[in-house]
Specification:
single chain, 420 residues, alpha+beta, BirA Bifunctional Protein, domain 2, Rossmann fold, 2 domains, eight-stranded mixed β-sheet, 15 helices, 39% helix
Length: 420
């Protein structure tokens, strides 16, 4: 028997209420802040991600789904959302619009990772990007917008971690200090980090192995190496967060897993354990990415979160979403000639905006009404041979048990009134 591929899952009908709830809150939030939706292809040019994410990141070296199409072009299933947004920003000349351009997406993401709690090979991501302005007030707005997103979902047990990883001007000195520190402890590093030490020292701070975590605690701090401009920017971000009464914790180990980040980085952590992967989401500034992809120097800042992880935390905190609208009317029919009339009535009621389920097959009336109850329908319309002749059906209220005869021509008016 076939099963869903490892690291993927089906989203069943009974789970859909959570998904609709989170997506609706995300869309409403973005509308409130002036963000517009952008949808990008599920696969992109392989080199887009190598150039943006970083050739030595785990995502590029281990986790991307890459293939050649029939024309021999190397393509990659989207492993993150920001690079495609920036590619679209450049390709469609969005830099000609008033800046910053504010965009959001709801996208499927693919990474070949070891499946565990909170980590999937195919998952869904909500993200928003503000491109074209370097004001630290925009960093603070994005972080505050993130807080509002989780708050509107009803989540309360989360906190913010904050750091600055500097820019191309001041980061080399920090990287040099990291190399010197970790070189003294190379024998204690995991095999992956021994490789990272030479190729990408910042990734050492992101390792989740216990020995590497302990070393990271005492590693040099990026905020101690910031140039005057980066220091001023970070100071202002913190000042704005204080004005917004948004609590945060400085975390010198926070670097995020993508090479395009500059200056501000932040992460949202649940205060209750959620599994091997705990972060609810995160983001930061990426002022060099647009230029790296061939555009002019363009500052930008954004945020992204996995929907599966959010829903896991909603369940853990006992937050139930509103139930999705369901069919209110069930049409039952008895007799060989009644099904045609049932189909006709169902079609007319649906055209009037009344959700209807019409029974199919030749099951007994008892079995059909049992199905209507299982579907939580409010009303059942019962059509028998006699009703077919008189054009008067039985309308039963499945909640109260009351029923009455109603002319077929009056059904739409009566049910529309009840709907209103």
């Amino acid at each position: 028997m076939y099963k869903a591929p490892r690291g993927t899952s089906d989203i069943l009908p009974e789970e859909q209420a959570y998904w609709r709830y989170v997506e609706d809150k995300a869309i409403a939030l973005c509308t409130l802040y002036g963000y517009q939706r952008l949808e990008t292809p599920v696969f992109e040019d392989f080199h887009l991600f190598v150039r943006s994410i970083g050739e030595e990141t785990d995502i590029v070296t281990k986790e991307m789904y890459t293939f050649k199409d029939k024309g021999g072009k190397k393509l990659t299933l989207r492993p993150e959302g920001t690079a495609p947004v920036c590619r679209a920003y450049l390709e469609h000349g969005l830099y000609n619009l008033p800046q910053p351009v504010k965009l959001y997406y709801l996208a499927t993401i693919f990474r070949y990772e070891r499946p565990q709690a909170g980590r999937y090979r195919q998952h869904h991501q909500f993200g928003f990007e503000a491109i074209g302005d370097g004001d630290p007030a925009l960093d603070a707005e994005v972080i505050d917008m993130t807080r509002q997103f989780y708050s509107t979902l009803g989540l309360t047990q989360f906190s913010f971690k904050l750091n600055s990883i500097g820019c191309w001007l001041c980061r080399p000195e920090y990287v040099k200090a990291l190399k010197e520190y970790y070189s003294r402890h190379i024998s204690s590093l995991c095999p992956d980090c021994q490789t990272r030490l030479e190729r990408n020292p910042l990734r050492l701070l992101d390792c989740k192995k216990l020995a590497c975590l302990n070393l990271a605690e005492l590693a040099p701090k990026s905020i101690e190496y910031l140039c005057p401009k980066c220091q001023s920017h970070f100071d202002k971000v913190q000042e704005y967060l204080v004005v917004l009464e948004l609590p945060f914790q400085l975390d010198h180990k926070l670097v995020r897993g993508l090479d395009y980040y500059t200056r501000t980085v932040f992460e949202v952590q649940p205060q209750t354990e959620a599994g091997a992967q705990t972060a609810l989401g995160g983001g930061g500034r990426y002022d060099d990415l647009i230029e790296e992809l061939g555009g002019k120097p363009t500052p930008a800042v954004g945020f992204a979160a996995g929907l599966e992880r959010i829903i896991t935390n909603l369940v853990k905190q006992g937050i139930s979403p509103p139930t999705l609208p369901r069919a209110t009317v069930f049409i039952a029919h008895v007799g060989s000639e009644t099904e045609k009339e049932a189909i006709k009535i169902a079609s007319k009621l649906r055209q009037a905006g009344i959700p209807v389920i019409a029974a199919v097959g030749d099951r007994s009336l008892k079995a059909q009404l049992r199905q209507a109850n299982s579907l939580d329908c409010h009303y059942a319309i019962i059509i028998g041979t006699e009703e077919l002749k008189t054009q008067v059906v039985t309308l039963r209220d499945l909640l109260s048990g009351e029923q009455k005869a109603v002319a077929i021509t009056h059904l739409q008016v009566l049910l529309s009134q009840d709907k209103g």
